[in-house]
Write a structure and sequence with these properties.
- The chain is mostly beta strands.
- Helix content is about 5%, strand content about 70%.
- It contains one helix and nine strands.
- Strands 1, 2, 3, 4, 5, 6, 7, 8 and 9 form a nine-stranded antiparallel beta sheet that branches.
- The longest helix has 7 residues.
Length: about 140
Amino acid sequence: MILERILGRSRITMLGVSASYFGMSATVEDNYVDDVQVIPLMLDFRQAFYRSDNDRFSTWLFVDAGYVFSITGNEMDVEGEFEFGDGWGINSGISIRHHTFSKAGFALDLGWFRHTSRMKWLPPSEKSGQRAWNLGMARLTFFF
């Protein structure tokens, strides 16, 4: 009965588009981590998992997928100077929403974001490659 009640109230699906900014930079014991800045443009799919009786509280499962634009400057390594290109990304996780007012509130998304970027070394090097990043993500959203 409880499972039927939960699943019966969870038939809400949302589809949307999102844009974000991620800036990553760190120095760990004299090892520099690439200073990467990206703007992912994602298609967002959400499915309600649980909704309270008064619809003020709900939990959602989400999956975002899309294209990641790189705004990172050129970097250097032993092979020479290289540039990061654009790539693809996917983000999945759980979202907790609270309707503070009847049509406004906030959502906390907890997820795992993975994206890849092409790397191309500038002449005289002919080398190219690809790099992938895996990031734990917490995102707070206000909606109205």
